[in-house]
Amino acid sequence: MTKFKLRWRQTGAALLAIMLLSANQTVWAKPAQMHIMEGFLPLRWAIFWWAVAIPFWVIGFIQIKKILKEKPEQRLMLGMAGGFVFILSALKIPSVTGSSSHPTGTGLGVMLFGPFVVTILGTIALVFQALLLAHGGISTLGANSVSMAIGGPLVAYYLVWLPLKGRVPAWVSVFTTAFIADLMTYVITSTQLALAFPNPQTGFLGSWLTFAGIFAVTQFPLAIAEGILIVLIFNFLQTNAAPELKELGVEGI
Amino acid sequence: MLIDRYAYGNRLRHTEPALKAGIALTVLTLCLALDHPWASLWALGWMSLLTVAVARIPARVFGRILFGESTFLALATVGIAVTLTVATPPDATLWRWHVGSLWIFGTAEGLSAALRTVSRALGAVSAMNFLALTTPLVDLLALLRRWHVPGALIDITAMVYRATFLLLDNLHRMRTAQECRLGYVTARNSMHSAALLGGNLFMKTFQQGRRLQYALDARGFDGELRVLPAKYRSNPGLALWGVGGVMAMLGMWRIPV
After folding, report:
1. I want to staple A60 with a disulfide (CB 3.0 to 4.6 A). Which of A120, A220, A231, B256 is the partner?
2. Does domain A39-248 have CATH number 1.10.1760.20?
3. Is B212 within 8 Å of chain A by CB?
4. Inter-chain touch A202–B85, beta carbons under 8 Å
5. Which residues of chain A neighbour B213 with C-beta distances below 8 Å?
6. Which stretches within chain B are classed as H helix?
7. pLDDT in tens, chain A (253 residues)
8. Does ipTM surpass 0.90 in this model?
């Protein structure tokens, strides 16, 4: 029994050492989100994902136009909301792997601002990450947008948030929506990488498993941590910002 | 926001943004279209030279930003170069490793694909970093307006840019206040602190957005933000550098691999 305890202490010390080491790196760490970097995708895949993204951008833009026509002053509010989605990725949250990570913010954004508006705001956030943080890229903007600003939020909104809202305890629906939005982003990115770089021996599936396996180490804990964070933020907002939530039309959770 | 700081203070700050964007986008497109390791490495060298020697961005800064995404690059490259399978690998492997019933191995083919991807990515990243480090976002937005991107979209993007710095300032102050009061000391506690920060930031966003709206309404805001365009200098020297670099890149493309 004592031997067992001792081992636990050693494991704890080792974990702490890893945490300290990785904490040192976070000083100038990029957001730990999984964006495909500039130039990483071959030309035809870069073009393909741009083509996939464009219809969604158009729908999002038409919706924003409609909002602006009804309330022209919303232009400023949308800008502030976009800044919020972008800044949210600068929040540091503890993650299981030890290093701190950053939420994607689209999970919260989709619950507050609705799906297609988040597509536009998320894409603007991606452009900013590419130009201001050198994270992601312009040639891969289409691909990253499909995973982070389109796929993740839309799936989370239509398949999780709307069906669950009001039927289960609020924390369950909020957590699941944020978790799925993150997880979908990671699954879509792995798929994009595997499609562009299928393994010569094992094909698309083998390549997909390799990519998904490599990135699961960072992305699974991140999705859980973000889920917890957003439940806490939502609790805070419900007690402190009820009028603002009502103004955005977030009700009946 | 290291990049933003340099974008406002470098030797190419007042150069016509269309020229800088033209060079960066041409090199980026060529890196992708030619997909040739020597051409990509040439792009990397040439764009580094333009950024460091012409725009006078410190080499250390450029290097740090260039390799900022090395974690993604390393992990994704491993994903390309390494094969995981339960079947016995073919004879022509560079290395192989048997773990339980699983084979992990790499082939020369996979390695060369990985190297090609790395050089392409680094060439493309250096081209975009040249643009990001020499051109502030406001100039790029003005350029997009000239290229007839819808005004509403540009206004929102400009607002996001402004909001980012307002909120970042708020974020830093709130975080400092939290840290002074033992926020973020344990894992559990830092989750709580981060949530308070995110929630307060949302409320702050709302308040500031509303205040800005009142201020603009009071000045007769009709839904469009109009500002005077900045004046830029033409820079034939840079144009020559750009054309020369692109020609040399096409020359590199002829080299067989």
Report:
1. A120
2. yes
3. yes
4. yes
5. 73, 76-77
6. 2-8, 17-34, 37-49, 59-66, 70-81, 108-134, 137-146, 151-180, 187-218, 236-253
7. 444 454 555 555 454 444 433 433 332 334 456 788 898 899 999 999 999 999 999 999 999 989 888 877 677 788 888 888 888 776 766 654 445 566 778 888 898 888 899 999 999 999 988 888 888 889 999 999 999 999 999 999 999 999 998 889 989 999 999 999 989 998 999 999 999 988 887 889 988 988 888 888 878 888 888 898 889 988 998 888 888 888 787 776 6
8. no
